[in-house]
Amino acid sequence: MKLDETARLVQRLSVLLFAGVSPTTAWSYLDGYEHLADGLPASLVPIDPGLAAAWRVATGAGAPLAPTLQQFAVGLRALGDAQREAEVALAGPVATARLVLLLPVVGILFGMVLGFNTLGTLFTTVPGLLCLLAGITLLVAARRWNRRLVAAAQPTEAFPGLEFELLAIAVSGGGSLDRARAAVEAALAEFDLPSGSDADGVLALSARAGVPAAALLRAEADEARRDARAAAQKSAAVLGVRLMIPLGVCVLPAFMALGVAPLLIAVITSTVAGF
């Protein structure tokens, strides 16, 4: 399920819960969803592991689910916006890279339009076969290189700020900090989610200033999502420059090997045969 669809589902659940519907009944109103015996919806984990962790922490800590789900829906929409912006930013460089990979084919066709048997030169002569081998090798290398660059530019953190958000949910239930930490760590481990966020500074600030820890933790989660959004935008912008490297190192030499060299060989061969 896409992030926008998940956010819509979570928002609907929060509205039902705010209206006084119990969590089990609210979930049952959504067609096709069933429940586990412990109250965690059976289909919730494949829909969104982060949401499943939030549900588990909220029910375990006795925190109200309605505001929890409402906050989670906001976070999901922010993450969805960041992913869409990254996809839009990557669309141009990726399309350019794919188009440039067709240059060698254009070179071969151009030679044939001029009346030279560039295909025959590539497949029936020793120099042509060497050019063909070199060109194909360079194109394969360029394609793999481009894929690695695009993959490296994709957002790497699926749920930025999730641990802060879960800890905010846990402390809002009124339990001790140690119990809240244990509940969050257990939920992250249960749903195989990343951990390691340093919340000690936030909790220390909360204690010094007398400010509720949940508000500061949610602010930290928002900051983590903003940082992830900025990082995704920066990676997409840098990708446009990095994709020029395989273009110069692999694609243009492949164009020379497959498009220009066979044409020159065909011209020289026809000229020599004319004498």
List its traits.
275 residues, mainly alpha
Please describe what this structure looks like:
This protein has one domain. Helices cover about 80% and strands about 0% of the residues. The chain contains 13 helices and no strands. The protein is elongated and about 90 Å long. The chain starts with a helix and ends with a helix.
Mean pLDDT: 78
What's the number of extended β-strand segments?
A: 0
The largest sheet, given as strand count, sense and whether it forms a barrel, is: none
**Amino- and carboxy-terminal Cα gap:** 69 Å
**Count, helices:** 13
| Low-pLDDT ranges | none
Overall shape: it is: elongated
Derived from helix and strand composition plus strand pairing, the structural class reads mainly alpha
Work out the helicity level. Answer: over 70%
H and E string? HHHHHHHHHHHHH
Beta-strand fraction estimate: under 5%
Number of domains: 1
- C-alpha Rg (nearest Å): 28 Å
